[in-house]
Automatic annotation (TrEMBL):
Domain SHSP: 29-138
UniProt xrefs under InterPro entries: A-crystallin/Hsp20_dom, HSP20-like_chaperone, Small_HSP
Sequence similarity: Belongs to the small heat shock protein (HSP20) family.
PANTHER family: HEAT-SHOCK PROTEIN 20 FAMILY MEMBER (PTHR11527)
Source organism, top-level taxon: Bacteria
Protein's name according to its UniProt entry: 14 kDa antigen
Origin species: Mycobacterium botniense
SUPFAM superfamilies assigned: HSP20-like chaperones
Length: 138
């Protein structure tokens, strides 16, 4: 009877932070690399949404849709890095949805991409009063 040699995977003394924190279920999402950070604000009559999407081709990898007052940004990233005889793959899809403010002009939405930041601008008309008074006839 022969015994097969056991191959053990060599590991560095300091594992990657995301791997180390994977044991703590509450902290793992904080170190997840497949997140899309968003910022939004009102600027000079426009609702502006900025998303951090470095390393993508906006023409191929980004899809922006508007439906029933909701703006959805979808992106997909795939990346391959090679160094010191090793290669690493990183890929994933991201999706975030935000509610548009009252008076948003869905037909006037524009998007641009510069230095890893996707900016979506939505023109917003002046807000109409939220309530309307109705006279009672007697």
């Amino acid at each position: 009877m022969t015994t097969l040699p056991v191959r053990r995977r060599t590991r560095s003394f300091f594992p990657e932070l995301s791997e180390w924190f994977s044991g703590f279920t509450g902290l793992h999402p904080l170190f997840e690399t497949r997140m899309m950070r968003l910022e939004d604000e009102m600027k000079k009559g426009c609702y502006e949404v900025r998303a951090e999407l470095p390393g993508i081709d906006p023409a191929k990898d980004v899809d922006i849709t508007v439906h029933d007052g909701l703006l959805t940004i979808k992106a997909e990233r795939s990346e391959k890095k090679e160094f010191n005889g090793r290669s690493e793959f990183a890929y994933g899809s991201f999706e975030r949805t935000v509610s548009l403010p009252a008076g948003a002009n869905e037909d006037g939405i524009e998007a641009s991409y510069d230095k890893g930041i996707l900016t979506v601008s939505v023109p917003v008309a002046e807000a109409k009063p939220a309530e309307k008074h109705v006279k009672v006839k007697s």
